[in-house]
Amino acid sequence: MRQTNDYEDNSGGLPLIGMALGVSFFVLLILLLVVAMNKKNSSPVVVRPVEESTQEESSSSYLTGSNLVASDLGFWDMYASEEETTTEEVEPSSEEPTTEEDPSADGKHIQVTSRDGSTEWVEINPQWKKHTYDFSNLVSKNNLLSYFKDGKEVSYLGIDLTKNETNVNYEAIKNEGIDFCMIRVGARGYETGIIQSDDMFDTHIAGATKAGMGVGLYFYSQAITEAEAVEEANYLLSRIGTYKITYPIAFDMEYVDNDSSRIETLTKTEKTRIALAFLNRIEEAGYTGMLYGNKDWLINRIDLSQFEKFDIWLFDEADIPDYPYVFSMWKYTRKGSIYGIDGAVSLNISLIDYSAR
Known about the structure:
There is one protein chain. The protein is α/β, with parallel strands linked by helices. The protein folds into 2 domains: 13-40 and 49-71, no CATH class; 110-356, Alpha-Beta Barrel (TIM Barrel). Helix content is 26%, strand content 22%. It has helices spanning 13-41, 55-58, 82-85, 170-175, 201-210, 226-240, 268-284, 295-301; strands at residues 109-113, 119-123, 138-141, 144-149, 152-153, 156-161, 180-188, 195-197, 214-221, 249-253, 289-294, 311-315, 329-336, 345-350. It starts with 12 loop residues before the first helix and ends in a 7-residue tail after the last strand.
């Protein structure tokens, strides 16, 4: 007797197979209709080359049957991208560092030499009054300087006289073109602090006056207080006697070469006050006060802004002074020579005719 197969349906297999085929045919028909409608109503999907895709597109996939990508769906904004959560590294700048301007060529600095021989470029103070001299109008003849303006000589030639000039023919130097003499009255000892008279003062002032030259005076100070400065001024005034002083009376404070002096520890403010004390006393007596100094002293060692009402006697051994501020007298060499004086002598040029005042 034959056994019934477990997979055999004796109840009638043919009708079931027909039903299954009918359902499959119906589903297939529906899918074909959907595809046909989708092609008719939607834009074709564009296949983009990988190299042309943006970073955002390359990290997303197109949604089936649409031109939208995953990133176009709003809920992706809830999550920070990898670029947003990663700290961006700053690449070092490839630009070269800015080069500072050359102070020797920028017109804003002046080179100053200190007592130890070192040099520095000091910025020119725009608040301090500048001179207006045109040194292309400066003429040198046998190292004797003249300054011209509009073709006319407007300068005056002078010399320093101290105890070092012991043999002077005053008439001869007058004939050589010397217009005035700046005569040292005395000095305070840089160690002892004692005031001493210049040994040649009386001889020089008498000889210069008799020869008809203008006379100015100065005192070498080592005062360490304002009271000592006034003492020096009073001493100088007491030595004038009946002589006519037609040029300024100058305050000369300097450090001592190759040695220390009483003024070494003075501050800039203290030196300024001491100089002002001397010059104010000179002006009280009816004379013209003048401050003497080199560039280092005038720019670095005192407060020049406090001396606007006083004339400046600049010491600068140069062919042309590069000192930018106002000055009226310039000592341009200590090694000059002139007939009538044995040995070297300091030469000065004044840009003001003080004798005419």
